[in-house]
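On clarity, I found the account of how folds are encoded harder to follow than it need be. Since the whole study asks how a given chain folds, the encoding of that fold should be made plain. The format is easy to grasp once an entry is in front of the reader. For illustration, here is how one protein appears when written out as sequence plus structure tokens.
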Amino acid sequence: MAAGVFIGKFIPAIPSFLSRFEYANVSIPIAILVWLMIFPMMMKVDFKSIKNVGKNPKGLFVTWITNWLIKPFTMYGIAVFC
């Protein structure tokens, strides 16, 4: 993050160049980097165990509540106050 802020502040040609690679208001370099960040976690998922989620849904409910009821409001709050 610090490197990104440094580059954006002191070498503005790099963000200008990267901003040209956009499709439907989505930054392709950012999309690729996010995918590369998530890919290792996805490889650790035991896809065979997904069919058994319904037997013990507590973790699923915690994830839903966090992602749909808590995170949007905290992100909005951070955006408003920063």
Q: What stands out?
A: The two ends are 17 Å apart (CA to CA).
